[in-house]
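Input chain follows. Return structure tokens only.
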Amino acid sequence: MPAGASLFSDLSGYVDRVAKLVRLDAALLSVETKENLQSVAVSIGFLIGAFATAFLGLVILLFAAVLLLIQLGLAPSLAALLVAVALFCISGALAFVGIDRLKNWSLTPRRALAQFTSNITALRASLRHEANG
């Protein structure tokens, strides 16, 4: 077999391997980005829940203050106040979870980039080995 045909065959094989690796890396990038976006959606859902709960807590707290001023008997007002405090506790827990999840989130597809870098390093090593061999 002529040397030119062998070189062409080797080059064609490398191009095919690189193309396959690029397709696999693109698929990994797509999957990882989708997972990251789903994580952000869940975190935003927690924050929306926290804000809605805090709003309800504020409304109930205002009703409690009005009832407290009107009645000064404290029984209905104290009950409304306890409900408001409980809602604020729930709101705080939801906000804590949502913010904590957002702090750990990143749009950077770290696994895909690491895999791509590893593939490029392996291809370079393979090319050097083939060139020396």
